[in-house]
Amino acid sequence: MTMDAEQLLTLLAVAETGSVSEAALRLGRGQPAISERLHKLTREIGEPLYVREGGGIQLTPVGQALIPDIRQLRAKLQDIENLLMRQKSLQAGELRIASTSLIANYLLPHYLQSFQSQHPGVNLYIKSGVTYWGDINLSELDVFFFEGEMDIPHLPDSYEIQPWLTGEIIAVMPKTHPLASVSVLRLEDIQPFPVVWREPSSGVRRRLEKAFRQKNIVPAHFIEVSDVESVGAMVKAGLGIGFMTRTVFEQRPDWGLISQPITSSQLIWQSYMAIPNPARRSRALSVFLDLMGSIPFR
Prior knowledge:
298 residues, alpha/beta, 9-stranded mixed beta sheet, two-stranded antiparallel ribbon, rod-shaped, LysR family transcriptional regulator
C-alpha cells in the first residue's frame, strides 16, 4: 500500500466536518486536492469509505472503522510536532557530556549553570571520571572533555578536537610546611619531600612526571589518590605536597592551604574537547558551544 498520513487525516477531517468543502478549509487545501486524496485512499483500501448523502458525506462501515485509529495517529503526530518544536527552541532536549572528574567538578559547572538558566527544559547527562571511558559510545554523546597528556578513546573521523581552557599547575601545602615560606619554589626543592598526586592517567600528574623526568628528579616517595578532593584532604593532613591547577585551588579556600608557583618550569595544564563536525552537532550542543565562547571563565 502507498497510503500516507495526509490521506488518512483528510478522511478524518471529512468525517468530522461532514463535507469536502469544510474539510478543505480546515486543512488549508483546495477541494480538488481533498477529493484526490480521498479517491487515492479508497483505491488503496479497495472498498468505498464514504457516500454522498443530502449534500454531505457519510462514512461507510469500513470508513467508520478507521476513524479511532486515525484519531490516535493524529494525536501522535501532534505530539511529535510539539516535541520537535520544543527541541528546536530548546524548551526540551538533552545535552550529553563525558568528562574527566576535574573538569566536571571545577570547570563545567560555571557554564552549565548559565546554560540551564537559559534552557531549563533541557536535561543534562554528565559522565565523569576515567573509569567511564572504556564504555563510552561517542555516538551517544554531544561533547567529550579531556586533559592534555592523557590517553583518550579512539575518535571517529566525524569528530574534531579543539583546545579549551588552560591553567597553571601549582604546589599546595599547609602553612606550616618547610617550603611554605620560600620566595622561589623549584622542582628540585620538592624532591626531598613526599608528594600527593592523582592516579597515573591524570593530566596534571602526567605533566608533572614529564617535568620531573626532564630534570632527572625522583620524588622521595608519594601518595597516590583518585581525585583532586583527596589531594586536598591528604595535603591538609600534612602527608605531603600536592599539585593541582590554580583554578581548582582558588575554588577550595576551605582546605586552608597555601599555594606556591613553581619556577624554572612551565607547568601549564591544557584541556580539550572532542565534538562532532558542525553538520552532526545537536541543537543543544551548538547553543552550549556558543555560550562557552561568550562567557569567560571566572
